[in-house]
Structure formats: structure tokens, C-alpha cells
Amino acid sequence: MDMNQLFSLKGRTALITGGSRGIGRMIAEGYLAAGARVYISARKAAACDQTAKELSALGHCVSLPADVSTMEGIRGLVEAYGKHEDSLDILVNNAGAAWGAPYDEFPESGWDKVTDLNMKTPFFLTQALTPMLKKAATDHLAKVIHIASIDGISVNPWETYSYAASKAGLIHLTKRMALKLAPERIVVSAIAPGPFASDMNKDARDHGDEVAERVPLGRIGSTEDMAGAAVYLASRAGDYVVGSTLVVDGGCAWGR
């Protein structure tokens, strides 16, 4: 058994939505280190371009700005990716949004924005890219990895109703999509992160020491923690993990 090959992504392509910052960038760094050609997408073109420029020091990284919250944006991203590659080995559905408001005041706009991006987009982007994923699934399996959250597994004190519901839905959607796509040699799985420093989790980003006190392991997540989990699922090492959600949270989901 060659452990280097077991976790290698050499020669494979990866598309990561929400890849300009936070967890998406962490995954991009890990995939580049493992040998993949990486394409990152984000709604803000300047930020996406800058991150790709910085990550290019580690390997092949290309910016493909797009707003994947709409079907038009999804089609645009697929078309842009197709100008660089004719197949896709790894799709990471990481782009997401959150919204917090008191129960009596929670707006429909906060519900629709979050559930559309967090749950609808991963389905329709994967659907649109399935032909390219099938094309890649020859001597190895193609992979789709949804980025969920521990908030889809356990309840927290914050009133983020649409976020919690969308992430729980994404975890269940992962199972349903996995059953459909496994016979096509496309493996679908998910990661449920806990506290990682990001614009989505400003507490972990700006008050890491305080947040760490609530984590059983005693710290917030690092780039290596997220990259390691994402490389595992994307590589040969994770081939038999089908429809499951890998919790990467230092014990938070069970220690609340």
C-alpha cells in the first residue's frame, strides 16, 4: 500500500465554490498541496482573482468569479470552467450564506437567500456538472463534497433558522444524491465544520480564544484540519465514504 498515492490528488481537477476565503480557501490550499489543478469561484471577482493569484504560488489555481445563487450564474460558471477543462474530478459545494434574526421578525428574504444558496445551489450545480464528473470517473471515482455545518446536526442558541434548516437539508440531500450517483462512479459526501475562522463565523475569526473555551478540544479549527478532511474525501482514501457527513468540529456538536 502506497500511502502517498492513497491521499494524492495529482493530475486531478477541482472546482471549489466560495473558494476565495475561509473554508473554501483552506480546501483549495490542501488540494493544491496534494497535486490538484484547482479552480475557485466566488461572487466578488476582485477577491476571487486575488486569492487565485496568491494560491498560484502553490500550484495551478484559476479564478472563475460567478454568482451561483442563480441558475444563470450556475450556467455561467459551468461554461467558464468548460473553457479550461473538459472533465471534473472533484466538486466542492462550499458557497453559503447565513442570516440571523429574532423568531418574530425573521424575514422571508433571509429565508430564501440562505436556503437557495445553501441547499438549492449544490443540487443544481452538481446536476449541471454531472456530465463532466462522469467523464472524469474512469480509472478513479469522481467526487462531490458538500460543505454543511454542525448547525445542521445539533441546535445552538442563535436564531439562524434558515441556516440551520438549510444545512440539515443539505446533509439529507447528500444521502439522496449519493444513492443516485454512486452507480455512475460519482461519490457524494459532506463535511460539517465547527468553528473555523471565516467571514461566516466572525466569532471564531475575531474572538478565537473565547470560542476555543467552548470547544472540547480547546481550540478552533485550522487550515490543516479542514484541508486534511477535504483531501481524505477527495482522494482514493475516501472512496468508500458514500453519502456520509464527516464532522470536523473539535467535539462541538456533541459538547453543546
Q: Determine the structural class based on helices, strands and strand pairing.
A: alpha/beta
C-alpha geometry: globular
Beta-strand portion reads 5-15%
SSE succession: HEHEHEHEHEHEHHHEH
The top-level CATH class is: Alpha Beta
Structure description:
The chain has helices at 3-6, 22-33, 45-55, 71-82, 108-136, 161-181, 202-206, 208-212, 223-234, 252-255; strands spanning 13-17, 37-41, 61-63, 90-93, 142-147, 186-193, 245-248. Strands 3-2-1-4-5-6-7 form a seven-stranded parallel β-sheet, sandwiched between helices. The longest helix is centred in the middle third of the chain and has 29 residues, at 108-136. The chain contains ten helices and seven strands. It has a single domain (3-255), classed as Rossmann fold, CATH 3.40.50. 45% of the residues lie in helices and 14% in strands. It has 256 residues and is an alpha/beta fold.
Short description:
The chain has 256 residues and is α/β, with parallel strands linked by helices. It has helices at 3-6, 22-33, 45-55, 71-82, 108-136, 161-181, 202-206, 208-212, 223-234, 252-255, and strands at 13-17, 37-41, 61-63, 90-93, 142-147, 186-193, 245-248.
Helix and strand layout, with pairings?
Layout: H1 3-6, E1 13-17, H2 22-33, E2 37-41, H3 45-55, E3 61-63, H4 71-82, E4 90-93, H5 108-136, E5 142-147, H6 161-181, E6 186-193, H7 202-206, H8 208-212, H9 223-234, E7 245-248, H10 252-255
Parallel strand pairs: 1-2, 1-4, 2-3, 4-5, 5-6, 6-7
